[in-house]
Amino acid sequence: MTIREFIVSADPATVHRVAADLAKQGIGTRIIPTETLGTPQPPIIHQPPDLGLTPLRIAILQRIAEGCTDAEIAARHGVSEATTKRTVQLIYRKIGANGRAHAVLIACRAGLIRDGAT
């Protein structure tokens, strides 16, 4: 098994919500209780004060946090799925994220989006 991404959170509700969102996308998850990891360490995440995203890109991040697929985001914003995929990749590059969960985590911590609640 290759670990591609991980989320560290002291809030079990957040961990389970993110795991459920990933499961909707067909991404398997494994939740490891923090007690088995030893002393909790603060996550190391670069949080620039201004991520420099347009309102549209912030809206796309919010849709990602809500668990929307690229096709659903495209339909909601009236663009093609290919355009949405390119925009999502540009967002990742701009904020230094390596995937959907990481992008949502960065955006939440920067105060740009809600934590996935609709």
Key descriptive features of the protein:
Sig_transdc_resp-reg_C-effctor, WH-like_DNA-bd_sf, single chain, Arc Repressor Mutant, subunit A, transcription, 5 helices, Response regulator transcription factor
Largest sheet: none
Which value, in Å, is the CA radius of gyration? 15 Å
Based on the structure given, which CATH architecture is correct? Answer: Orthogonal Bundle
Q: Give the mean pLDDT.
A: 77
- Level of helix content? 40-55%
Q: What structural class do helix, strand and pairing data support?
A: mainly alpha
Q: Estimate what percentage of residues fall within beta strands.
A: under 5%
Number of domains: 1
Note the gap between the termini.
Answer: 32 Å
DSSP helical segment count: 5
Give the strand tally: 0
Q: What pattern of helices and strands is seen along the backbone?
A: HHHHH
* Mass-distribution shape: globular
Q: What's the CATH superfamily, by name?
A: Winged helix-like DNA-binding domain superfamily/Winged helix DNA-binding domain
Stretches with pLDDT under 50, minimum 5 residues: 44-49
Please give the CATH class. Answer: Mainly Alpha
The third-level CATH topology is: Arc Repressor Mutant, subunit A
What does it look like?
This protein has 118 residues and is mainly α. It has one domain: Winged helix-like DNA-binding domain superfamily/Winged helix DNA-binding domain (Arc Repressor Mutant, subunit A, Orthogonal Bundle). The protein is 48% helix and 0% strand. The protein has five helices and no strands. The longest helix is centred in the C-terminal third of the chain and has 15 residues. The chain is globular and about 45 Å long.
